[in-house]
Design brief:
The complex is a heterodimer of chains A (355) and B (320).
Chain A: H1 6-34, H2 36-39, E1 60-62, E2 68-77, E3 89-96, E4 98-108, E5 112-120, H3 139-175, H4 177-192, H5 195-205, H6 212-226, H7 229-242, H8 246-253, H9 258-266, H10 271-294, H11 306-311, H12 316-321, H13 327-354
Antiparallel strand pairs in A: 1-2, 2-3, 4-5
Helix pairs in contact in A: 1-3, 1-13, 3-4, 3-6, 3-7, 3-10, 4-7, 5-6, 8-9, 10-13
Chain B: H1 2-28, H2 45-54, H3 61-73, E1 79-80, E2 85-86, H4 87-122, H5 127-141, H6 144-158, H7 176-214, H8 217-224, H9 229-266, H10 272-282, H11 285-313, H12 315-319
Antiparallel strand pairs in B: 1-2
The chains are: A mainly alpha (355), B mainly alpha (320).
Chain lengths: 355, 320
């Protein structure tokens, strides 16, 4: 490694800062999503047919008489049950927002059962931070729970792609020769395919009425299986240059086995590429899941995914009349920004280290 | 020429692999188009069996594949169950529409990307370049889905653009000029969305390719000879920078096809995207296979075209 020049040092510092910032934000998002049951006031399937398309509930601190309260409170909708999208509120009856309230039971990570929610209001009142959908379900809660499915899809598929990539790329790069030729030709095939169409073809092959989790797992595995070629190529490149390094050649001279060399000296050098690929692939696969579900080919109701939250926007009247239905779509943009920032910073850091 | 022969063989093999893959996976799936009919008490199981044998669904997989492949050579892509017609003419209309959309979007994207990328490269590091950089990296983070939904929102809210389809209801009564205008009006929004979705990486690559070339000694020599800046950029620098961009063109066909599927569904452009989604839901297998094959053909054709362009643009390719 060359000594780092002055100007690059400051560059690296800002990349490190960027990466740290992005990671903090990502961790926060993951915690929100993982503990969706706690942060969401309602269960994702709880319906209130009397309040379809309720606009986002606004928090008040000042009551009708002008007194200021420290505890925020809300007003319930007036005339709920008569028309969708009503925004007049019944200012006679304030409902204070309580914290750590007991509500509908939920499970964290499918293991720990609890009833405690971060916030909520008392029974007849409703708090919809991001409005409600056609069935009067809380969009905020559905967004958090939907994140569980979409993020899990991204994670599983990315891990699958990268694992296959590291095996194939490692073997191709390390052994070379006809093995390399064969594996990389096969990879080209996968790179050249219109993969979204292919994914659809696979979806068509699944029976339409198998259980939600089977659909989910099958789709996610297929996404992961299709996408291995790019990480494999990159890892092959790193392995190719790594195996010619002096310390690897020296270790081989001392009689180290292939398995030892790969595990101890060669593969550790691919970690930078692996990490960068993971941060790039996760949002890509999250989007793939969102797209499939949006088109009605992913997990179905009542399970929420970010895709099914957006799919109601395909109806013109929802799109034009209820602006809050757009909020989940807009929230995805900063999330992807954070992901890409992290990937960018990782890439730059990795570059400045290996140069 | 030998190079092309090899590429052609490679492409054919690729298409064959895709067809075997999609055929195999679709036929392995449990249930077919006629399965839901079994639930209807008015349709006897004999009728369903007769329908199945009429369409050849009762024969074994290799037999059906061979039959289908023989049909493909005669431009017969099998029957569509849902539309009760052959797949080929059905697909032809949709393919024309998709080509119109992606072709327009592709031209639009490159027509914006090349000047913008060159401009950024020339003004490298200045505020204009930075602004362009911020805009393009901002656009990267907007998911295509969200972008298209925003466009749909614009169309629905403002009423400036038609919100779906390819032609107005009164299309057949219009004269030729108005027909063209009508289609263009419907085309504008999906093509714009598609162009925006594919634009950011193009601009970045044009910029970096140009920066590399602009630092070359021959550009300095050209400038030192007093050749006009515009001529230096377009006549001297651009052809040299074109090489990686042509390869990028081949790759961008894939992105374009995936994005066009979405834009077609969201803005209801009658291309192959909506056809595919409907066919999947109806288990209309030959339509699904036809659509997947067609998209692969587009992709392969795009890559071959890029190769041809590269051959024409780069003398080094010809001497090999």
């Amino acid at each position: 490694m060359l000594p780092i020049r002055g100007c690059e040092q400051s560059d690296e510092l800002t990349h490190r800062q960027k990466l740290a910032g992005a990671l903090v934000l990502l961790t926060a998002v993951q915690i929100l999503i993982l503990f969706a049951g706690f942060f969401a006031p309602y269960n994702f399937a709880v319906q209130d047919r009397e309040r379809p398309f309720a606009p986002p509930t606004s928090l008040h601190f000042k009551d009708a008489r002008g007194n200021v309260h420290i505890r925020p409170f809300i007003y319930d909708l007036e005339g709920a049950g008569h028309s969708a999208g009503v925004s007049e509120t019944d200012s006679e009856h304030p409902y204070p927002v309580h914290f750590f309230v007991r509500g509908t039971p939920y499970k964290i990570a499918a293991m720990f059962a609890s009833r405690v929610h971060l916030f909520g209001v008392e029974a007849p009142g409703h708090i919809f931070l991001m409005g409600s959908d056609a069935y009067g379900r809380d969009q905020f809660s559905r967004f958090l729970f939907g994140g569980q499915i979409s993020m899990l899809a991204g994670l599983i598929a990315a891990i699958l792609s990268v694992s296959i990539g590291i095996i194939v790329g490692g073997i191709a790069g390390y052994y070379g020769g006809w093995v390399d030729e064969l594996l990389m030709r096969g990879g080209e095939l996968f790179l050249a395919l219109p993969w979204l169409y292919l994914l659809f073809a696979v979806r068509a092959a699944l029976p339409l009425h198998i259980s939600q989790w089977e659909v989910f797992l099958l789709l996610v595995s297929v996404m992961g299986l299709i996408g291995w070629a790019r990480p494999a190529r990159l890892i092959r490149g790193v392995v190719l240059s790594a195996k010619q390094r002096n310390f690897v050649v020296a270790a081989r001279g001392f009689g180290a086995s292939d398995a030892y060399l790969l595990r101890r000296h060669v593969l550790p050098q691919t970690y930078g590429v692996l990490l960068t690929q993971m941060t790039l692939l996760i949002p890509q696969y999250v989007l793939a899941e969102v797209t499939l579900t949006f088109l009605g080919l992913g997990v179905g109701e009542p399970l929420p995914s970010w895709g099914s939250l957006l799919s109601s926007l395909q109806q013109y009247y929802v799109l034009s009349s209820y602006w809050w239905m757009f909020l989940p779509a807009l929230l995805l943009i900063p999330l992807f920004l954070v992901f890409y920032t992290a990937a960018d910073a990782l890439q730059e850091l990795h570059k400045s280290v290996t140069l | 020429m030998k190079y092309f022969a090899r590429r052609l063989v490679h492409s054919t093999l690729l298409l064959l692999a895709v067809s075997i893959f999609s055929f195999g996976i679709l036929q392995l799936a449990p249930g077919d188009f006629f399965a839901p009919m079994g639930l209807n008490p008015q349709i006897s199981s004999r009728t369903i069996a007769a329908l199945r044998s009429q369409y050849g669904l009762d024969r074994s997989l290799p037999v059906r594949y061979a039959h289908w492949l023989r049909g493909v050579l005669k431009a017969d892509l099998g029957p569509s169950f849902a539309y009760n017609s052959p797949v080929a003419p059905l697909l032809a209309v949709r393919a024309r529409n998709t080509l119109l959309l992606t072709g327009t979007a592709m031209s639009l994207a490159w027509l914006i990307a090349i000047p913008l990328g060159m401009w950024s490269a020339v003004h490298r590091g200045k505020w204009a370049d930075r602004a362009a950089g911020v805009v393009t990296s901002g656009l990267v983070t907007v998911p295509d889905l969200v972008l298209f939904l925003v466009l749909l929102l614009v169309a629905v809210r403002t009423g400036w653009f038609p919100t779906g389809g390819m032609v107005s209801a009164a299309f057949s009564d219009l004269n030729v000029w108005n027909k063209v205008k009508d289609v263009a009006e419907h085309l504008f929004l999906p093509a714009l969305g598609l162009a925006i979705a594919t634009l950011p990486p193009l601009v970045r690559h044009v910029r970096s390719a140009m920066i590399e070339v602009l630092e070359a000694p021959f550009i300095r020599a050209a400038r030192a000879h007093g050749i006009a800046e515009r001529r230096v950029l377009f006549r001297y620098a651009l052809p040299v920078a074109a090489n990686p961009l042509i390869s990028l063109f081949g790759l961008s066909v894939a992105t374009m096809l995936s994005a066009s599927l979405l834009v077609e569904v969201i803005l209801s452009w009658p291309g192959i995207g909506p056809l595919l989604v409907d066919a999947i839901l109806a288990k209309d297998v030959y339509v699904v296979i036809g659509t997947v094959m067609l998209s692969s053909v587009f992709l392969v054709a795009g890559n071959l075209f890029a190769d041809l362009l590269l051959f024409a643009a780069d003398p080094r390719m010809r001497t090999e």
